[in-house]
C-alpha cells in the first residue's frame, strides 16, 4: 500500500453554529449526569449484583458515561484534557474490554504492545481517538475481520516517537474517499455517521504535537498511524 497523507480543507465555523454546539454539549452534559445516576442506582440493584452478565453490561455503560462526561467537561474546560505521562501498555490494556464490547463478537482484536516509553498527551483523549478508530474499523468489517492495534518505538524526524497503528481487514477506501476523510462532516454512512470521528483524531494528534498517516486499499483494509512524541 502506498502511504497517503490526506490534507484537511480549512473550515470556518460561523459563530452561531459554534454557540449552538456549545449549548448542545452543555445539555448533553446534563443528560449524561442523569444517565450516570440511573446507572449507579442500577448497579446496586439486587438483580444486577446477582448476575455476572448484567453486572458487566452495567459496568460498560458506567465506563462509557464517565468517559462521555469527562469529554463534555473537557470541551469547556481545557484543563480536563491536560497532557500527562501516558503508559501505552496500561492505556490499551484498560481499553481492552471496551473495544471488545464496541466491536462485537465477529471481530477479532489483537493488541501488540512493544517495550515503548511513555508519551505525553491526554490519556482520555487518546483513548477516545482509539475508540473512534476502532468503531470505524468495525463499520468497515460488517461480516468478520481483524482489528489490530500495535505500539512500537520508531525514529522521528527529530526525536523518537511512539507509533500507534490501528489496522483493519475491512472494505478499505478508494483514493477519492481517502483524500476527504479528514474534512469535518464528511461521511459515507448516511443516516448513521457524522463525519466527526477522524477530524477528532486529527485534532488530538495535532494537540499532542504528533503526526497522522492513513493508508488504505479497497478490499484490503485500512491502517491509521498515530506518531506521538516520547515524553522527555
Ligand atoms: N477504517 C476505515 N475503513 C474504511 N473507511 C473508513 C475507515 N475509517 C474511516 N472511513 C471513511 O471515512 C469516513 C469518515 O470517517 P469519520 O470517522 O470521520 O466519520 P464517520 O465514521 O462517517 O462518522 P462518525 O462521526 O460517527 O465517526 C467514513 O464515513 C468512511 O467512509
Ligand atoms: Mg467514525
Written description of the protein model:
It is a single chain. The chain is an alpha+beta fold and 232 residues long. It has two domains: 15-79; 81-229, Histidine kinase-like ATPase, C-terminal domain (Heat Shock Protein 90, 2-Layer Sandwich). Helices cover 47% and strands 20% of the residues. The chain is built from seven helices and seven strands, in the order H-H-H-E-H-E-E-H-E-E-H-H-E-E. The protein has helices at residues 15-43, 46-50, 52-76, 88-103, 123-140, 175-178, 197-207; strands spanning 84-86, 107-113, 119-121, 145-154, 161-168, 211-217, 221-229. The chain has a five-stranded mixed beta sheet, covered by helices on one side. The protein has a two-stranded antiparallel ribbon with strand order 1-3. A hairpin with a 3-residue loop joins strand 6 (211-217) and strand 7 (221-229). Helix 4 (88-103) packs parallel to helix 5 (123-140) and helix 5 (123-140) packs antiparallel against helix 7. The model is unreliable at 7-16 (pLDDT under 50). Bound molecules: adenosine-5'-triphosphate and magnesium ion (MG). Residues 132, 136-137, 140, 168, 170-173, 177, 181, 186-189, 193-199, 222 line the site of adenosine-5'-triphosphate. This is histidine kinase. It is an enzyme of class 2 (transferase).
Amino acid at each position: 500500500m502506498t502511504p497517503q497523507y490526506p490534507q484537511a480543507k480549512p473550515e470556518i465555523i460561523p459563530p452561531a453554529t459554534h454557540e449552538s454546539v456549545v449549548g448542545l454539549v452543555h445539555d448533553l452534559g446534563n443528560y449524561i449526569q442523569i444517565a450516570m445516576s440511573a446507572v449507579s442506582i442500577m448497579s446496586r440493584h439486587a438483580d444486577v449484583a446477582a448476575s455476572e452478565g448484567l453486572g458487566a453490561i452495567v459496568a460498560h455503560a458506567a465506563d462509557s458515561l464517565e468517559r462521555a462526561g469527562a469529554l463534555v467537561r473537557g470541551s469547556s474546560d481545557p484543563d480536563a484534557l491536560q497532557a500527562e505521562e501516558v503508559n501505552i501498555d496500561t492505556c490499551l490494556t484498560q481499553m481492552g474490554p471496551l473495544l471488545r464490547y464496541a466491536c462485537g463478537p465477529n471481530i477479532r482484536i489483537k493488541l501488540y504492545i512493544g517495550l515503548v516509553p511513555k508519551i505525553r498527551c491526554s490519556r482520555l483523549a487518546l483513548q477516545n481517538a482509539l475508540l473512534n478508530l476502532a468503531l470505524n474499523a468495525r463499520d468497515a468489517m460488517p461480516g468478520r475481520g481483524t482489528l489490530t492495534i500495535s505500539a512500537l518505538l520508531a525514529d522521528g524526524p527529530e526525536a523518537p516517537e511512539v507509533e500507534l497503528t490501528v489496522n483493519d481487514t475491512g472494505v478499505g477506501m478508494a483514493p477519492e474517499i481517502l483524500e476527504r476523510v479528514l474534512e469535518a462532516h464528511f461521511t459515507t454512512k448516511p443516516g448513521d455517521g457524522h463525519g466527526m470521528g477522524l477530524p477528532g483524531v486529527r485534532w488530538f494528534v495535532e494537540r499532542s504535537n504528533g503526526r497522522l498517516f492513513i493508508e488504505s486499499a479497497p478490499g484490503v483494509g485500512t491502517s491509521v498511524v498515530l506518531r506521538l512524541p516520547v515524553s522527555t
